[in-house]
Amino acid sequence: MSRSLGFPLTALLSSSLSSDLGRNRNLISLARKWRCVMTAVMPMSVRSESIFDIGDRLAGLLEQAKQEAVGNHVPEEMLARLADIVETLRSRVSRRPERDPKSLFDLDERLIELMERAEEAFEGGEIPQELIEEINDYLEAFRTKVDRIAGYWRWQESIARICGEEAERLTTRKRAAEGRVSRLKDMLLAFMMSRGLKKLEGERATIGMQANGMASLVIDDPLQIGERFFEKDLRFTKTELQEIAYQLADGELRRRLETALAGDGWEINGSAVRFAMTNNAGVSGARLVKGHHVRLR
């Protein structure tokens, strides 16, 4: 294509050089324009820019922008050119090699995904059969990746162990903090009651004293409380309970029951005592006391 278009132009230029000067100048101008057209349409082998070439272009354009800037203002056209080069450089730097979709990393991701889905389904009530089949397919297809499956296993065990240790530590701190709050409330209550104060006002908070919603049970003398309010936990097998239901004759079981009844370990059922007293049933050795508590508002 370049030869078929270029030959008539060369002949035209040769015949035109013998004419007047003005016409020559016009033809020379036409030749230059034609050369630009030919350069655009002719196939060219372009060398791919390296990141260093792009960096050099960016540095040169930044220097040019510095010269053209008025104060801190950079022309919009220059900003657009800079953005294009920066985007080109970013795309080249952030390019990553293709990964094997069956790499160990992807296998781990798949296993984690399946286990998370199973956990969510279990919390919802039941793991669907489709998900179970997916997990089975994974284990079947990648049974040679036992090390990775075992790694996930150990990873979860380590998380459980660390969380357990952390839970114990936090539980201890929780009990200590609750104890400090309880002691502080007791001291505040004693302070306010001894001075007849209903509340303590600060700039941003108020501590008030008010009556409890429910009276607290205070056992003054356990010996005076009726035996019907005493309870004790006894452990029997199902066979033993059936034997109690069907027969209470002399024997080992009866002796065991008599020993348990005569032994220690009985506790007062406070709920039963409270219920009896709130229903106007007198219970000797116990009373209901309505105390107070402090609350931060």
**Radius of gyration from CA coordinates:** 46 Å
Number of domains: 3
Q: Quick one: biggest sheet? A: 3 strands, antiparallel
- Bin the helical content: 55-70%
List the helices and strands in order.
Answer: HHHHHHHEEEEHHEHEE
User: How far apart are the first and last residues' alpha carbons, in Å?
Assistant: 90 Å
Quaternary organisation of the protein chains: single chain
Strand content: 5-15%
- What topology, given as strand order, has the largest sheet? 1-2-7
Task: Give the averaged pLDDT, no decimals.
Answer: 75
Computed structural class? mainly alpha
Query: Which word captures the global form?
Result: flat
Number of strands: 7
Number of helical segments with 4 or more residues: 10
Spans where pLDDT lies below 50 across 5 or more residues: 1-28, 30-46, 99-107
Written overview of the protein:
- The chain is mainly alpha-helical and 297 residues long.
- It folds into 3 domains: 2-93, no CATH class; 104-180, no CATH class; 208-296, no CATH class.
- The protein is built from 10 helices and 7 strands.
- The strands form 3 sheets. It has a 3-stranded antiparallel β-sheet, covered by helices on one side.
- The longest helix has 50 residues, at 146-195.
- 1% of the residues are buried.
- Mean pLDDT is 75; it is low at 1-28, 30-46 and 99-107.
Question: Which short descriptors sum up this protein?
Answer:
single chain; 297 residues; mainly alpha; 3 domains; 3-stranded antiparallel sheet; two-stranded antiparallel sheet; 62% helix; disordered N terminus
Chart the SSEs and their pairings.
Layout: H1 2-16, H2 21-41, H3 51-68, H4 76-93, H5 104-124, H6 129-141, H7 146-195, E1 199-201, E2 206-211, E3 216-219, E4 230-231, H8 238-246, H9 252-262, E5 267-268, H10 270-278, E6 286-289, E7 292-296
Antiparallel strand pairs: 1-2, 2-7, 3-6, 4-5
Helix pairs in contact: 1-2, 3-4, 5-6
